[in-house]
């Protein structure tokens, strides 16, 4: 039920309901990257496609490819039943964007502060410790 407030709302972005199929992975000249938006007024970088800057509310914004590397800020392991464990954490990308991300920990164990790199598997994306990443990433 929607209450009649008399105030018209303009929705400029929608929350992402799930990491699966979030539409954040794009194809750029440099390869597949997370989609970002850079504000042409204040220089702020945001994750996702935006039409308004979340810092200065400016509308002069441009799409950009986000950095593929960053630092693991914090993480947890979700136990989903059975033996399924889904590592999930916040990654601070090198362009000062923090994102919630699936993590993979093949090889080097996860720890806060470690360098991580973007990995792409089909339409899925994740971060993995730099030391564990396949060569070429
Ligand atoms: Zn701005």
Summarize the structure.
Helices cover 0% and strands 43% of the residues. The protein contains no helices and nine strands.
Write the layout of secondary structure elements.
Layout: E1 25-28, E2 31-39, E3 45-47, E4 61-65, E5 69-79, E6 85-93, E7 98-102, E8 115-121, E9 124-129
Antiparallel strand pairs: 1-2, 2-3, 2-4, 5-6, 5-8, 6-7, 8-9
Kindly describe this structure.
By secondary structure, the chain is an all-beta fold. The chain folds into two domains: 25-65; 69-132, OB fold (Dihydrolipoamide Acetyltransferase, E2P), CATH 2.40.50. It is built from no helices and nine strands. The strands form two sheets. Strands 7-6-5-8-9 form a five-stranded antiparallel sheet, with no helix packed on it. Strands 1, 2, 3 and 4 form a four-stranded antiparallel sheet that branches. The termini are far apart. Residues 39, 41-42, 44, 53, 55-56, 58 line the site of zinc ion.
CATH architecture of the largest domain: Beta Barrel
Radius of gyration: 17 Å
Number of domains: 2
What bound compounds does this protein have? zinc ion
Helical residue percent band: under 10%
Proportion of strand residues: 35-45%
Q: How many strand elements?
A: 9
User: What name does CATH use for the topology of the largest domain?
Assistant: OB fold (Dihydrolipoamide Acetyltransferase, E2P)
Distance between the termini: 49 Å
Mean pLDDT: 87
**SSE-based structural type:** mainly beta
- Low-confidence runs: none
Strand/helix succession: EEEEEEEEE
